[in-house]
Amino acid sequence: MEFINRFFKEPESSFFLFGPRGTGKSTWVKYRFKEAIFIDLLAPEEFRIYSARPERLEERVRACADNQVFIIDEVQKVPELLSVVHRLIEEKRGWKFILTGSSARKLKRTGVDLLAGRVVLSTLHPFIAAEIDKRFDLENALNYGLLPIVLASSNPSHVLQTYISLYIREEVQMEGLVRNIGNFSRFLEAISFSHAGVLNISEVGRECQVERKVVEGYVGILEDLLLSFRVPVFTKRAKRAVAVQPKFYFFDAGVYRVLRPAGPLDRSEEIYGLAVEGLLAQHLQAWIAYSGNCYKLYYWRTRSQVEVDFVVYGTNGFWAIEVKNKARIDKKDLYGLRCFYEDYPECTPLLLYRGKERLKIADILCLPCEEFLCQLQPGRGLDEGL
Predict the structure, then answer these.
(1) Does the pLDDT of residue 289 top 90, yes or no?
(2) Is the pTM for the entire model greater than 0.90?
């Protein structure tokens, strides 16, 4: 697969580039910084060298000219290197360090805090529709997601299955993050039913027969591995009693589809509906990150179960978005948006659905989901150009 330009723009200074495995971090940094010195900690020999002697990095850097770029791939494998990077940055000789990582777990208390203020934190996400342009197909995205390694494969289903297995074995089992890999595997299946839904830790624990505290730890592992994220409730200037628990999403629709069991008792329209909402969530997460993190993503739900799927709030805009996995809509589908708009007339309400026509119902713009996703670009408002 040829190189596809990303909307991600690198900071001028040294930076962390976090993102799940398979999002194209290594491909991007190698393409963007062709003359950089590349240290691959996934390579067994390099891992052995730098884990045994982290100071080897300082020796290598000092042998190079000022203003050289150094890429340390999967830096979480040897977090001790961050102390070395810190010392070298303090010398202010123009060396630029790009530190990629697919797990924040080992870096949370040491490296990231150590380098805060000196190294910018950035994230790379699965493709968004506008990046792949005419190659974007909504049905394929809902079935297989938008990971570059999956999109480039002639057998995306097999790649996704392998992807999940590798994460369980390499990142969870080999790193010793859990004691019982069987419990964790059952947890992954159980929590797939929480995708695009309110996260109930106790319920997930009952489903996979694991204690609540253990489930909380497992959810933390997913978030540290960047495989999932939570969306909080929008509570600013609330006029109604609202829910308190966040919603849960896997970072990619394809990963969700692999983990979610499907059988005679599972309705395909329900699975697809959650996949559509999750696909929009991952697009909004990427759009916010690539737009400079000047927005935050929320959802809205009252105690009486009136809900809006997404609220995007920031210094330059305020949108409420409802997603419907149906080809036809009517006024009752707009009820949640209308309630939210009554409470927050400053927002721009949008409804996305699976039809083909633009509609305006009760002064709310209703758009085909695919059209909305394809026009979504960082630096532009969510409704800009619509």
Answers:
(1) yes
(2) yes
Are the CB atoms for 110 and 129 separated by under 8 Å?
no
- Looking at CATH, the fold of the domain delimited by 15-123 is given as Rossmann fold (3.40.50)
| Cα-to-chain-centroid distance, residue 10 | 18
Q: Where are the domains of the chain?
A: 15-123, 129-375
* Exposed / middle / buried, residue 93 (Cβ in 10 Å: 0-12, 13-18, 19+): middle
Q: On the CB side of 380, how many CA atoms lie within 13 Å of its CA?
A: 13
| pLDDT (tens digit per residue) in 114-137 | 576 678 889 999 999 999 999 999
pLDDT tens figures, 296-337: 999 999 999 999 999 999 989 999 999 999 999 988 999 999
Task: Give the C-alpha separation, 255 to 147, whole Å.
Answer: 9
Where do the H-state alpha helices sit in the chain? 25-32, 44-52, 56-62, 81-90, 111-115, 129-132, 138-144, 148-151, 156-166, 181-191, 201-208, 212-224, 253-259, 268-290, 335-343, 369-375
